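In the laboratory, one determines a bound structure by crystallizing the protein with its ligand and collecting diffraction data. In a computational setting the workflow is compressed into a single prediction: the sequence and the ligand go in, and a structural description comes out. We illustrate the idea with iron/sulfur cluster.
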Amino acid sequence: MSKSSSPRTIKAPPQVGIVSLGCPKALVDSERILTSLRSEGYAISPSYDGADVVIVNTCGFLDSAKAESLDAIGEAMAENGRVIVTGCMGVEEDRIRAEHPGILAVTGPHQYEQVVAAVHDAVPPVHDPYVDLVPPQGIKLTPRHYAYLKISEGCNHTCSFCIIPSMRGKLKSRPVAAVLREAEKLAAAGVKELLVISQDTSAYGVDLKHAASPWRGRDYDARLYDLCDGLGELGLWVRLHYVYPYPAVDKIIPLMAEGKILPYLDIPFQHASPGILRAMRRPANQEKVLERIAAWRGICPEIAIRSTFIVGFPGETDADFEFLLQWLEEAQLDRVGCFRFEPVQGAAANALSGAIPDEVKEERWRRFMAAQRKISAKKLQARIGQTLDVLIDEETEDGARGRSYADAPEIDGAVHLQTSGHRKPGAVARAKITGADDYDLWARPV
Ligand code: SF4
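The predicted complex, in structure-token form:
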């Protein structure tokens, strides 16, 4: 009997559970941790019961997110008892340990090595090169057909309501060739849509002084245009998130018009009143945004713009709020989210006078959402009769649910495809829009 045919004993791999809270950026961190652990032979446990240790990747952006993180840690302690905490809330180790004594380790955001080392301490790896092969694209927590692509970490701004720069540090961009190579691997693994994320996508490469790096025989600069140009070579849907309206954005609109990247921009405007934007210390708050949007639509009429806003920021007068509503009416944005201002421990905005009472915040939020609902309904009605590509997310009883170029996963609306045919997640269907409500569309394949 040859040596190779003798039976091999494969030890059961240690099981790691993960609870991932927070934004897509935190999800990418979880994916990196899992990729690293899988490459060392760990298995991922889908439940608390089967896990030898549980990692809780926390969010510490708002006080409500911190409370949610503490609850999740408590649940993991109660259900499993062997817990490692990481992520943004990890910077508050004392508070976490005070509430949940017995935590095995606490690490901060992006401390992948420390998290992995803590897992080694809790349950040593059992590596078996025959079974522990990491798929080339790493481990994705998103469905297989779309993936988040993180291009940088940290932020050079000091928005007064935000503590991310103090938690995550200054902007640190990845070399452009590294990002393009990762995107290429994802494409080869069957990903159909890339969601480009960072704290400040327009600033990409500033810290690298836009240093060029080679990919597919050509030098690409570490700047937004070159990155989009390179990603556009892959034939995928490329969607940009967290873009501030710096002049660099004007240059990428032609790439959208040519169909190289999706005509979609997620720009977190947060407000429109100049006084409030100054108090928020928002980047690009001096730019003439309405004129810019009009110019973008002139070059690429189908561009879809999504944004988020905060109402009830300290000092927001009735006039500021009316200005915001008027601006919203003129801007005619496609997709909009709105938050009521919430103070975050450690944020500069907490020292501002003019706190807005909760009932006023609520009333403004309600009026804002009602105004945007009308805009959204009108814009979606205008889509009836158009033919669009729909990327299928899941099969449903009456067909499939997917999204057009104008809808990002999780945060925007959906296109309900009415069909008796089989539609697999990740397939793209050409479909004629037949109906619309305030936020979603209905369509039939053509
Ligand atoms: S741009 Fe402003 S809100 Fe965004 S991460 Fe930087 S400081 Fe925070």
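The mean pLDDT is 89. Keep in mind that any predicted model is a hypothesis to be tested, not a measurement.
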